[in-house]
Design goal:
150 residues, RpiB_LacA_LacB, Ribose 5-phosphate Isomerase B, Chain: A, RpiB/LacA/LacB family sugar-phosphate isomerase, alpha/beta
């Protein structure tokens, strides 16, 4: 699985920690920006970069992790793309459910909530990365309906 990682200025410090953690744990990860702390950057460009890479990646189960202040902006931007199922997650239980039931392929993390709680963001990420999609007919039907809304 390839992971595309992006953040705006508010999520930048957490993104750097997440990147180091993923690389250390042998995940294939690509940083799509911001590549430097720029207080004037905007989240939509990084959400778009990650979403397009996930959509265009033909490997097995590509995903993205996006980080901004509350996670909501990144989530709203990413979900504008057909085939993206982004979720703002703040605990491991929701990480499990969004993967298991919704086949979430973009994890949006709220830096304001998680940046000072390493155990929390690591638990969320590991749960999200390692929970398989159930692939039940009702979930497949609902996910297909999401793509028809666009």
């Amino acid at each position: 699985m390839k992971i595309y990682l992006g953040s705006d200025h508010r999520g930048f410090l957490l993104k750097e920690k997440v990147f180091a953690y993923l690389v250390k744990n042998n995940y294939e990860v690509e940083d799509v920006g911001g590549r430097e702390l720029n207080p004037d950057d905007d989240f939509p460009q990084f959400a778009q970069a990650a979403a397009l890479r996930v959509i265009g990646d033909e490997s097995d189960d590509p995903r993205a992790i996006l980080i901004c202040g509350g996670g909501q902006g990144m989530c709203m931007a990413a979900n504008r793309f057909k085939g993206i199922r982004a979720s703002v997650i703040w605990d491991a239980y929701e990480a499990k459910m969004t993967r298991q039931d919704n086949n979430s392929n973009v994890l949006c993390l709220p830096a304001r909530v998680l940046e000072d709680n390493e155990a929390a963001w690591k638990g969320i990420m590991e749960t999200w990365l390692n929970t398989p999609y159930v692939d039940a007919p009702r979930f497949n039907r609902r996910n297909a309906q999401l793509d028809q809304l666009l």
